[in-house]
Each structure stands twice: as C-alpha cells, then as structure tokens.
Amino acid sequence: MNLLPADWLVRLRRSLAATPDHDPAHWHLAGRPLAEAAVAAAARAALPIAPRAAAVLVPIIDRPGSPSLLLTARAGHLRHHAGQISFPGGGIETNDEDAVAAALRETREEIGIESRYIEPLGFLPDQIVLTGFRITPVVALLRPDFKLQIDESEVAEVFEIPLDFIVDEHNYVPVRRTLRGVEVTLNDLNYNGRVVWGATAAMLQVLHRALQAQE
After folding, report:
1. What is the DSSP pairing of strand 194-196 with strand 118-123?
2. Domain extent at residue 146
3. What is the separation, in whole angstroms, between the first and last Cα of the chain?
4. Is residue 30 part of a domain?
5. Cα(68)–Cα(38) distance, rounded to whole angstroms?
6. pTM for the full model?
7. Which residues pair with 178 in a beta bridge?
8. How far is CA 145 from the centre of its chain?
9. Residue 72 included in any domain
10. How distant is the alpha carbon of residue 6 from its chain centre?
11. Do the Cβ atoms of 102 and 93 come closer than 8 Å?
12. How many domains does the chain have?
C-alpha cells in the first residue's frame, strides 16, 4: 500500500523553512522540539555552550512515481558516529558560505555528486545531537542521472530507502537509550536489515510529518 500522498512535493515545499532557524528555542532532539521534551534541561546541560554547527543534505531522488531517499553508511573507523546510517554532510567550515554550501561540499566530497544534480528545497528544524553538534538538514531534489564517486575513507556504503517507506509510522520502533547520561526515546527505522537511528532517524520523522502535512 502506497502511503505517499500524490501531492507530496507540494506538501513538502509548503512545510519546509525558506531559511535555516538556529534559534535554540526551536532546536529539535530525537525528532521533536527540545522545548517539549521532558529531558530538555538534562540535554542542554550535556551539550557544550555552543554546539558545533553542521549541515546534512537530505537528498530525495526525483524518480517519477518512485521517489527515494539517498543515505550512506559511515566508515567504521571515523571518530564520530562510526558505522551509523547518515545523510551526506558534516561540520560547517569557515570557508562555507552557509549551510547549503556546506551540505553540497560534503556531498561532493563524500559521494562525488556534483551540485548541478541537486536542487535545494528548504530546511527542516535544526537537530541537536548530544555528541555536541547542531545539524541543519537541507532537503533537496536529486536528479536521477547523478553519478556516484564514493570516498571509501568516509563512506562504507550508499543505498536508497523508498520515500513511501518513511511515511508509514508503523515502520518506526521506539527504543530507550542513554546518550551522554541523558535517557531519550529514539524511534529506530529498520529497512532491509539496516537500522537507522539517532539524528538520521529523527530527521526522517520530521520529514515524515512534513510530507503528511495538510494545508
């Protein structure tokens, strides 16, 4: 059963922010506004005063009738989030003009996709991770004729998840975890033997709500 609304792209464009919102009052944790979380005080105490700014690209492959998300599995030796499923992205550097520029640069460096294949659409709320990052998700359409060139020092695998799969709320499994001394409930997404969790799964839940949003 296809749960993806026929007008999903219209709903998505309507739901995304035109500019990133870095206001701490609007940060998200585990897919929900931090201000609404019972662990808000503990989470803020676990974070550095100024979490490191990062950006990821949330690339939706624009295949007519069968759009999908492109994700990566991080290399196992990396210092942060080794082996986890993620979107292409990383820290915003001083020579990056903005979050979009950082996400495009990281995408090119990690998996070789050039910016000419990518159409940024807008932004999801900033997600914080208790390892000390504030991540700005840049949602974009990806032309299906893109070319991959994987940097194996950073990325172990590139794969796709149908967009229809992430809009089915039954595919999310709540799991209680303790991160940096803070107990949070994260909703894992299991797809073909891969477990998507943490900030990536949190961003997928926010994307899920954006795709389902009514006017």
Report:
1. unpaired
2. 8-212
3. 23
4. yes
5. 33
6. 0.93
7. 183
8. 22
9. yes
10. 23
11. yes
12. 1
Q: Give CA separation, 111 vs 157, 160, 196, in Å.
A: 9, 13, 19
Q: What is the CATH number for 48?
A: 3.90.79.10
Contact (Cβ atoms closer than 8 angstroms) between residue 92 and residue 54? yes
Residues whose CB falls within 8 Å of the CB of residue 57, separated by 6 or more in sequence, listed in order: 87, 88, 89, 103, 104, 106, 107, 118, 138, 140
Q: Are 177 and 184 in contact (CB under 8 A)?
A: yes
Phi then psi for residue 21, to 5 deg, are -115, 105
Instruction: Specify if 31 maps to a domain.
Output: yes
Residue-wise pLDDT for 84-116, tens only, equals 899 999 999 999 999 999 999 999 999 999 999
d(CA 209, CA 43): 23
Q: Where are the beta strands (DSSP E) in 7-84?
A: 28-29, 32-33, 52-61, 68-74
**Bridge partners of residue 190, in order along the sequence:** 195
Residue 8 DSSP one-character state? H
116: its two tokens: 């000419």
Q: Return phi, psi of residue 29, to 5°.
A: -135, 130
How many CB atoms neighbour CB 29 within 10 A?
Answer: 25
Domain annotation covers residue 3: no
* Segment 101-158, tens digit of pLDDT: 999 999 999 999 999 999 999 999 999 988 889 999 999 999 999 999 999 888 988 9
Q: Do 139 and 12 contact (CB within 8 A), yes or no?
A: yes
